[in-house]
Design a protein that fits this description.
Blueprint: E1 3-8, H1 13-25, E2 29-32, H2 38-41, E3 46-54, E4 57-58, H3 61-65, E5 75-82, H4 90-99, E6 108-113, E7 115-116, H5 123-142, H6 147-159, E8 162-163, H7 171-183
Parallel strand pairs: 1-2, 1-3, 3-5, 5-6
Antiparallel strand pairs: 3-4, 7-8
Length: 184
Protein backbone atom coordinates (compact mmCIF):
# COMPACT_ATOMS: atom_id res chain seq x y z
CA UNK A 1 0.00 0.00 0.00
CA UNK A 2 1.63 3.24 -1.18
CA UNK A 3 1.33 6.06 1.35
CA UNK A 4 1.96 9.79 1.17
CA UNK A 5 1.96 12.35 3.97
CA UNK A 6 1.17 15.94 3.05
CA UNK A 7 1.43 18.73 5.59
CA UNK A 8 1.28 22.44 6.25
CA UNK A 9 3.21 23.72 9.24
CA UNK A 10 3.51 27.27 10.50
CA UNK A 11 5.60 26.85 13.65
CA UNK A 12 7.06 23.40 12.94
CA UNK A 13 4.80 21.34 15.21
CA UNK A 14 2.78 19.75 12.38
CA UNK A 15 5.99 19.08 10.44
CA UNK A 16 7.44 17.22 13.43
CA UNK A 17 4.33 15.04 13.66
CA UNK A 18 4.47 14.41 9.90
CA UNK A 19 8.16 13.44 10.05
CA UNK A 20 7.58 11.12 13.03
CA UNK A 21 4.55 9.59 11.30
CA UNK A 22 6.58 8.93 8.13
CA UNK A 23 9.10 6.95 10.16
CA UNK A 24 6.50 5.06 12.19
CA UNK A 25 4.44 3.90 9.20
CA UNK A 26 7.29 3.79 6.65
CA UNK A 27 5.40 6.14 4.32
CA UNK A 28 6.65 6.39 0.78
CA UNK A 29 6.70 10.18 0.59
CA UNK A 30 6.45 13.29 2.75
CA UNK A 31 5.73 16.64 1.09
CA UNK A 32 4.51 20.12 1.92
CA UNK A 33 1.01 20.96 0.69
CA UNK A 34 2.36 23.54 -1.77
CA UNK A 35 4.03 20.66 -3.70
CA UNK A 36 0.85 18.56 -3.83
CA UNK A 37 -0.92 17.87 -7.11
CA UNK A 38 -3.74 15.59 -8.17
CA UNK A 39 -1.31 13.72 -10.43
CA UNK A 40 0.80 12.94 -7.37
CA UNK A 41 -2.22 11.93 -5.24
CA UNK A 42 -3.38 9.38 -7.82
CA UNK A 43 -0.19 7.38 -7.23
CA UNK A 44 -1.05 6.56 -3.60
CA UNK A 45 -3.53 4.27 -1.84
CA UNK A 46 -3.39 6.11 1.46
CA UNK A 47 -3.18 9.86 1.95
CA UNK A 48 -2.39 11.58 5.23
CA UNK A 49 -2.91 15.32 5.50
CA UNK A 50 -1.76 17.34 8.50
CA UNK A 51 -2.18 21.05 9.10
CA UNK A 52 -2.29 23.50 11.93
CA UNK A 53 -5.71 24.56 13.17
CA UNK A 54 -6.58 28.23 12.89
CA UNK A 55 -10.12 29.35 13.86
CA UNK A 56 -11.17 25.68 13.76
CA UNK A 57 -9.99 25.38 10.14
CA UNK A 58 -7.20 22.98 9.24
CA UNK A 59 -4.91 25.18 7.16
CA UNK A 60 -4.35 23.93 3.61
CA UNK A 61 -6.95 21.15 3.83
CA UNK A 62 -9.16 22.79 1.20
CA UNK A 63 -6.46 22.15 -1.41
CA UNK A 64 -6.68 18.40 -0.75
CA UNK A 65 -10.47 18.33 -0.40
CA UNK A 66 -11.04 19.91 -3.81
CA UNK A 67 -9.95 16.51 -5.19
CA UNK A 68 -12.05 14.50 -2.72
CA UNK A 69 -14.64 13.28 -5.26
CA UNK A 70 -11.82 11.90 -7.43
CA UNK A 71 -10.19 10.09 -4.49
CA UNK A 72 -13.04 7.70 -3.69
CA UNK A 73 -10.86 4.60 -3.59
CA UNK A 74 -8.26 6.13 -1.26
CA UNK A 75 -7.84 5.89 2.49
CA UNK A 76 -7.69 9.45 3.82
CA UNK A 77 -6.38 10.35 7.26
CA UNK A 78 -6.46 13.97 8.44
CA UNK A 79 -4.70 15.34 11.48
CA UNK A 80 -5.21 18.84 12.76
CA UNK A 81 -2.63 20.26 15.13
CA UNK A 82 -3.75 22.94 17.57
CA UNK A 83 -3.01 24.66 20.84
CA UNK A 84 -5.64 22.88 22.87
CA UNK A 85 -4.69 19.87 24.93
CA UNK A 86 -8.41 18.94 25.08
CA UNK A 87 -8.46 17.41 21.61
CA UNK A 88 -10.87 14.66 22.66
CA UNK A 89 -13.50 17.27 23.48
CA UNK A 90 -16.54 16.44 21.28
CA UNK A 91 -17.45 20.12 21.01
CA UNK A 92 -14.00 21.02 19.62
CA UNK A 93 -14.08 18.02 17.29
CA UNK A 94 -17.52 18.98 15.95
CA UNK A 95 -16.37 22.56 15.37
CA UNK A 96 -13.41 21.32 13.33
CA UNK A 97 -15.61 18.89 11.36
CA UNK A 98 -18.19 21.58 10.59
CA UNK A 99 -15.67 24.34 9.78
CA UNK A 100 -13.77 22.06 7.39
CA UNK A 101 -16.93 20.70 5.72
CA UNK A 102 -16.11 17.11 6.69
CA UNK A 103 -19.65 16.08 7.75
CA UNK A 104 -20.35 14.02 4.64
CA UNK A 105 -16.78 12.92 3.89
CA UNK A 106 -15.36 9.49 4.58
CA UNK A 107 -12.11 10.50 6.27
CA UNK A 108 -10.44 9.70 9.55
CA UNK A 109 -9.88 12.82 11.65
CA UNK A 110 -7.39 13.13 14.49
CA UNK A 111 -6.80 16.24 16.57
CA UNK A 112 -3.36 16.56 18.11
CA UNK A 113 -1.94 19.10 20.57
CA UNK A 114 0.75 21.24 18.96
CA UNK A 115 2.03 24.56 20.18
CA UNK A 116 2.95 28.05 19.19
CA UNK A 117 6.18 29.95 18.71
CA UNK A 118 5.55 33.56 17.81
CA UNK A 119 9.26 34.06 17.15
CA UNK A 120 8.68 32.15 13.89
CA UNK A 121 5.88 34.50 12.76
CA UNK A 122 6.41 37.27 10.23
CA UNK A 123 7.28 40.63 11.86
CA UNK A 124 3.78 42.03 11.27
CA UNK A 125 2.01 38.94 12.58
CA UNK A 126 4.36 38.80 15.59
CA UNK A 127 3.61 42.48 16.38
CA UNK A 128 -0.15 41.90 16.10
CA UNK A 129 0.03 38.80 18.29
CA UNK A 130 2.10 40.53 20.98
CA UNK A 131 -0.28 43.49 20.95
CA UNK A 132 -3.29 41.18 21.34
CA UNK A 133 -1.56 39.37 24.24
CA UNK A 134 -0.84 42.66 26.01
CA UNK A 135 -4.46 43.79 25.62
CA UNK A 136 -5.76 40.44 26.89
CA UNK A 137 -3.36 40.54 29.84
CA UNK A 138 -4.43 44.09 30.74
CA UNK A 139 -8.12 43.24 30.44
CA UNK A 140 -7.71 40.19 32.64
CA UNK A 141 -5.84 42.17 35.28
CA UNK A 142 -8.63 44.77 35.21
CA UNK A 143 -11.05 41.92 35.96
CA UNK A 144 -8.97 40.72 38.92
CA UNK A 145 -6.97 37.94 37.26
CA UNK A 146 -3.85 36.42 38.82
CA UNK A 147 -1.06 38.66 37.50
CA UNK A 148 1.92 36.49 38.57
CA UNK A 149 0.61 33.45 36.66
CA UNK A 150 -0.23 35.66 33.69
CA UNK A 151 3.21 37.23 33.68
CA UNK A 152 4.87 33.81 33.78
CA UNK A 153 2.71 32.46 30.91
CA UNK A 154 3.13 35.66 28.89
CA UNK A 155 6.93 35.59 29.28
CA UNK A 156 7.12 31.89 28.41
CA UNK A 157 5.05 32.44 25.28
CA UNK A 158 7.20 35.38 24.17
CA UNK A 159 10.55 33.76 24.97
CA UNK A 160 10.35 30.09 24.04
CA UNK A 161 6.84 29.46 22.81
CA UNK A 162 4.70 26.55 23.88
CA UNK A 163 5.36 23.01 22.65
CA UNK A 164 2.86 20.22 23.36
CA UNK A 165 4.08 17.82 20.64
CA UNK A 166 4.48 14.23 21.80
CA UNK A 167 5.14 11.35 19.39
CA UNK A 168 2.81 9.15 21.47
CA UNK A 169 -0.10 11.31 20.28
CA UNK A 170 0.28 9.48 16.95
CA UNK A 171 -0.37 6.02 18.49
CA UNK A 172 -4.08 5.81 17.70
CA UNK A 173 -3.64 7.03 14.14
CA UNK A 174 -0.78 4.59 13.52
CA UNK A 175 -2.82 1.74 15.00
CA UNK A 176 -5.79 2.47 12.72
CA UNK A 177 -3.47 2.81 9.71
CA UNK A 178 -1.93 -0.59 10.47
CA UNK A 179 -5.39 -2.20 10.69
CA UNK A 180 -6.40 -0.64 7.36
CA UNK A 181 -3.14 -1.77 5.79
CA UNK A 182 -3.50 -5.33 7.12
CA UNK A 183 -7.10 -5.55 5.84
CA UNK A 184 -6.23 -3.81 2.57
Amino acid sequence: MKTIIIYHSECGHTKRYAEDLKIRIAADELIEVKKMSFKKLKQYDTIFYGGNIKNNEIVGLKKLMKYYDKLTNKNIFIFGVGMTAQNNDPYVRNLVITTNDLDDKHVRLYLLPGGININLFSPLKRFMFKTALKVAKKNDKDLGGNSSQQDMAFNMLLKDGIDLVNINNLDKMVSVYNKVKDNG
